[in-house]
Every structure is written in C-alpha cells, then in structure tokens.
Design brief:
The protein is mostly helical. It folds into 3 domains: about 5-130, MgtE N-terminal fold (Alpha Horseshoe), CATH 1.25.60.10; about 145-245, CBS-domain; about 270-459, SLC41 divalent cation transporters, integral membrane domain (Tetracycline Repressor, domain 2, Orthogonal Bundle). The protein has helices spanning about 5-15, 20-30, 30-40, 45-50, 55-65, 70-75, 80-90, 90-100, 105-110, 115-125, 135, 150-160, 185-190, 195-200, 215-225, 245-260, 275-305, 305-310, 320-340, 350-385, 395-425, 435-459; strands spanning about 145, 170-175, 180-185, 210, 230, 240-245. It is elongated and about 95 Å long.
Length: about 450
C-alpha cells in the first residue's frame, strides 16, 4: 500500500527533477518506507527514474520491499543489464522468490548476465521444492571452522559480515561442511582471545531438513526462541539458514489461510482491495453455494415436522433460538480445536480426551442456556395469543425448550470439536471445518432434535 505521508513528496521531487532530493530520500529513510512511498500511482518508468539517483545497493534494498507483483512489473520496465546487476545485490531468498514469478524467457535472459557464483546459487535455491524449508532458506550465513581462536574468528567475520544475512549466530562446520556446532556473536565477543571455537561453541544444534514443512519450521523456531535456524541435508551438511523475518511471513500466510477458511472463503493471498472482483467473487461464491445447498436440508427437516408446527404453532417461534444455540456452540468448539491443532496443542490421537472434555463443556453450557430458555418459554407463553389453538402447559413448553437447548448444545460442541480432528486425520485442512460449515450442519440436525423432543411431549 502507498505511504500517504511521503507519496506527495515523491511526486514533487519527480516533478522538479530534484536529483539531490531523490538521492537523499532514498538514502536517509528506511528502505521499507521508501518502498511504500514509491508503490503509488506512478508508472514503473517513473519509479526507476527515482531510484537511479542512488547506488545500486540501495536500489536493491528498496526493491526487496516492493510487493512481489510490483517487482515483476519493475523487471519489465528496465534494461536486462541493470536488472541483473540489481539481482546480484539482492538477498538470496528474495531474488529467488522473484525468479520464480518471472516468465522462463525473462529468467533465462537475466541469468546469462549474472556472474557465475550468483548463477549457481540461484539455480540451487530455485531447485528447492515449493512449500518446504529449502524454498525459504538463504545461503547467506556466517560460518567458521572449529579450530580457529576467538580472535581469528572475529577477523574472519569482518570479511563475511557484509555478505551475510545475519551474524548473530555463527555456525561451525567441519571439512565436509557438516554442521557441528553454533556460537553466538555475544559469546564470541566475550570469549578470551585465544579460546578455541570448538571449546566455546554449543554442540546441541537445533536444525531442520530442507524438505520439512515451513509451518513445522516456524513452530521449532518459536519453541526455541531462535532468530535463525540452520537447514541441513540428509548427511547433516549445511545448505542454508532460515531467518525470523521469513518465518513471520509463513506464520502470517498460514494464519490468513486459516482465518479465510474458517470464514468459508477460499484463501486470498493478494491485497484485499487490489484483488480482482472476479477472483474475490469466485472464492466467496463457491463456499456460499455449498452452504446454501446445505441449507436446503434445513427446509427438508422443517417439512418433516410440519404437522407438529401446524398443531402447536407456538413451537415455530423457538426454532431460531434452538438452532442458533447449536450453531454458536459448534462454531466455538471448531474455532478452539482448529487453533489448538495449528499450535500443536492437540492432535488426532487426543480425540477421546477432546470428546470427553467437550461433552462436559457442552453439558455445562447447555444447562446454563437451557435455564435461560426455560424462562423465555414461560414469558412467551404468558404473552402469546392462543386464539384458535390449544396451547401446551407453560411448564411443559419450558421443559421442551430446556431439554432441546441442552441436547442441541451438547451435539453442537461434539460436532464442532470432532470435525477438525476428522479432517486432519483424512489429510484435509481443519480450517475447512469452518464456523459456517459447522453451523449449517448443526442447524439441520438441531431442528430434528428440537422437534423430536417437542413431539414426544406435546403430541
């Protein structure tokens, strides 16, 4: 999204062709701020015109903060030689994300202009399978052999630091490039000058495989409070690191997908206001159509008990009250269990414990709501116009509502808690057991429960 604070200034500098002002703007502000300010209603050519007044290193830093779709447009708006030079300055993981989005012919033409070392690095990262730890990692990391002293290690780090993504963790590798330990920059600075790296390093290193799921990587980093985690192959040879900023992107993406699915919307990765109308319509219409068809069963269930409704019309007044109880309690349970699954707090193996817990919770909630329903039934009976109808006794009506609410609430919590576990078991995203999905299913079954109890007592 454009930065409304700086966008007018950007346009003014371009209009005045103020080269010094554009240079100062690019170099005095954080690259993220500059990137936000430039992503406005300017054409791509004007953005490049603005950026050319700063050094290529600053251009690359700003370019990385552009949305990926905007980056793709920017590639088409400049010469291949200039873009290749900029790619060489970009962080390794960001430039690979860009390469994956470009047309194959464009990628090929750019790679021919990149130096051999960067070309090999890009090819290695691009070859990683999508949606894996390898696809997130960067090969920019600081490493040391175990035989150096602390003083020698600091001298070597001064050479590595300009090219490394982070130097807070320095990884210790043997002659075969196998990961043997890790030392923090703090420990290295505080160590005696002649202390050996092998003596001050941490031997128990938390690492992940290149083919692991990014969500698992995020959980591991959160569990151990890491700002970077090494990625190794099957022989424990180090191939890269994943930094906290990339993990944040994964967490946001996963949370967004879960929220969308729980709202019965197909996941939308683009900016809400910038996503095409047809795309949003399609993602929403599909699930709404499914839920709409599911709602037809509510009509069918009501038709099965039309005799009870025509005999005791008072029953129809409590249909919304009873079925909303089941839908709301089921949605609560589905939300809690889906989130617990995402955080690793429960798994499919815990289904019996979850069932036992939700049975008790459903009963407690049902009794609480049922008591309220009982009082509402008595009050409604007192003010209802019974003309031409033989009404049930007020206490009997209240008892029907009480029992129906208790049973529907218990049923709703069971359905809402079990569906996410069942979906996870069969390999489907638990987020699909969304609140609207659970509510629609419990609505249909809740009507059957309600009128079955009513028929037993009143007819």
């Amino acid at each position: 999204m454009p930065n409304p604070l700086f966008t007018p200034e950007v346009k003014y500098l371009l209009q005045e062709n103020d080269a010094h002002g554009m240079k100062e703007f690019c170099e005095s502000l954080h690259p993220a701020t500059v990137g936000d300010a430039l992503v406005c209603d300017l054409p791509v050519e004007q953005v490049w015109r603005f950026l050319k007044h700063t050094r290529i290193k600053h251009q690359a830093a700003i370019f990385e903060y552009f949305p990926i779709d905007w980056q793709v447009q920017m590639v088409e708006g400049t010469g291949r030689e200039h873009m290749a030079e900029l790619i060489e300055q970009m962080s390794h993981d960001d430039r690979v994300d860009l390469m994956r989005r470009l047309m194959p012919k464009v990628t090929e033409s750019l790679l021919r202009l990149v130096d051999e070392a960067n070309r090999r690095d890009i090819a290695t990262l691009v070859s990683q399978e999508a949606n894996t730890a390898g696809a997130l990692m960067t090969t920019d990391y600081a490493w040391l052999p175990p035989g150096l002293t602390a003083s020698e290690a600091l001298d070597r780090l001064r050479l590595q630091a300009p090219e490394s993504e982070t130097i807070y963790y320095i990884f210790v590798l043997d002659e075969q490039h196998r990961l043997t330990g890790v030392v923090s920059l703090r420990i290295l600075i505080l160590a005696a000058r002649h202390a050996l790296i092998r003596d001050i390093m941490e031997n128990q290193v938390v690492s992940v495989r290149a083919n692991e799921d990014p969500e698992k990587v995020a959980k591991t980093m959160a569990q151990f409070d890491l700002i970077a985690i090494p990625v190794v192959d099957d022989q424990n040879r180090m191939v890269g690191i994943i930094t906290h900023d990339d993990v944040i992107d994964v967490v946001v993406q996963e949370a967004t997908e879960d929220v969308h699915r729980m709202g019965a919307v197909g996941p939308i990765t683009e900016n809400y206001l910038e996503t095409s109308f047809v795309t949003v319509w399609g993602r929403r219409a599909f699930w709404l159509s499914c839920l709409f068809v599911g709602g037809i069963f509510t009509v069918w269930a009501m038709s099965r008990f039309q005799h009870a409704i025509s005999t005791v019309a008072l029953l129809a007044l409590f249909v919304p009250l009873c079925i909303s109880t089941g839908g709301n309690s089921g949605s609560q349970a589905a939300t809690l269990i889906t989130r617990a699954l995402a955080l690793g707090q429960v798994s499919e193996r815990d289904w019996l414990r979850v069932l036992r817990h939700e049975l008790q919770m459903g009963l407690a909630l049902g009794l609480s709501l049922g008591a309220i329903g009982f009082m509402i039934a008595l009050a409604t009976h007192a003010v209802y116009d019974h003309a031409g109808e033989q009404p049930p006794a007020a206490f009997t009506l209240g008892l029907v509502i009480f029992q129906a609410v208790v049973c529907i609430c218990i049923w709703g919590t069971i359905v809402g808690s079990m569906l996410p576990l069942i979906f996870r078991r069969i390999g489907v995203d638990p987020g699909i057991a969304s609140s609207p999905f659970v509510a629609t299913f419990v609505d249909v079954t809740g009507i059957v429960i309600y009128f079955t109890i009513a028929t037993m007592y009143l007819l």
